[in-house]
Amino acid sequence: MFRVGDKVNARTLTTFTGTQMRLPASDRTVHLQFRRFAGCPICNLHLREVASRSVEIQDAGVVEMVVFHSSAGRLRQYQADLPFAVIADPERKLYKEFGVEWSLRSLFHVDAARAAVRGMRQTTSLIGGLAPRENHLGKPGDFLIDPDGTIKACKYGAHADDQWSVDEMLDLASQKRPT
Prior knowledge:
single chain, 179 residues, alpha/beta, Glutaredoxin, five-stranded mixed beta sheet, 7 helices, 7 strands, globular
């Protein structure tokens, strides 16, 4: 598990479309999000808000990178229209490295259940939400990573709908790191 002040190793991540992304970014803060599976109605509901505010996020000096534990093929089905980097990690290598976990309780929180219902109504087909071959027990994780690789802020979700809002992320990104 990472904490504020820890450093991440520099690397290149490949999006499901083949684009290469540097982590950390050389001149911007990266918001690295760990989401659940490609058709997840909770994730899709949240990511639609992020997408609708992508210009505001970019203007704040933040680069969005979103990791799913789904295959690139599944991501093409459900995430092809997102205006930011989406990374397939079906072997969960990044999840393990960053300490983003899964648990049975991730789904049994009232906020997670409400978000799942809203998400299935608004963003995902029933089949995508059920996704029988995908692990539904994942929890989200959010990391703000400065250009030098230092973790500026992080959040390990307690349940499936426990992630930063766009406003929370922008507020954290705007704060100066103590020296």
